[in-house]
Q: What sequence folds into this?
């Protein structure tokens, strides 16, 4: 227990010129110092901040993309093992994420978020050639095998700029706003990047 006269001595010591000078010259370590937001982050909606951490890319970046006749680009990261391939009329169950290339890869769709009962993500189910999904995604799925993983880059004319009501549809209001901020702005390129895993087909 510090007595009153002892407390006065402690305060007097802390107020001495040598102690004040020492405290004044202390440097706060970088891990403790408050991090200032970058100029790019100031004024951005919170869903657009730190977009680089939202959707890590597959590890293999060495193989080239293949460009289809319609301008869709595809790149396989894992080829499936089934003999059957996706074609017109195929019914496919896919796990899929969609990103906006013009917004540094902001994720606007992910089947992993479609897990209402907690038993796992519900895949997106579409039938190729029925006009259920944006044409560029359908074209990019053709040729896949069960278990395959493919990256598909869809030009804006085969994506939401001309087909706004088709799958994959954003699941939240924030995701829809992110998509609209690109496709409803004529100065922005509405190209979409899809990462797809084919779970089932028939």
A:
């Amino acid at each position: 227990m510090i007595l009153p006269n002892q407390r006065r001595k402690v305060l007097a010591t802390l107020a001495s010129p040598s102690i004040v000078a020492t405290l004044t010259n202390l440097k706060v370590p970088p891990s403790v110092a408050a991090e200032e937001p970058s100029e790019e982050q100031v004024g951005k909606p919170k869903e657009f901040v730190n977009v680089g951490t939202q959707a890590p890319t597959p590890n293999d970046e060495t193989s080239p993309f293949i460009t289809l006749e319609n301008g869709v680009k595809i790149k396989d990261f894992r080829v499936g093992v089934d003999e059957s391939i996706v074609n017109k009329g195929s019914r496919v169950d896919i796990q899929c994420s969609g990103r906006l290339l013009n917004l540094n890869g902001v994720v606007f769709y992910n089947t992993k978020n479609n897990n209402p009962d907690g038993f796992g993500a519900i895949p997106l189910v579409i039938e190729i050639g029925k006009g259920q999904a944006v044409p560029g995604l359908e074209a990019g799925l053709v040729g896949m095998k069960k278990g395959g993983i493919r990256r598909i880059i869809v030009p804006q004319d085969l994506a939401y700029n001309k087909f706004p009501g088709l799958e994959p549809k954003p699941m939240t209001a924030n995701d829809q706003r992110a998509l609209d901020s690109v496709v409803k702005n004529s100065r922005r390129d509405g190209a979409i990047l899809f990462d797809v895993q084919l779970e089932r087909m028939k």
In short: The chain has four helices and seven strands. The first strand starts at residue 66 and ends at 67. The two ends are 80 Å apart (CA to CA). The first helix runs from residue 4 to 14.
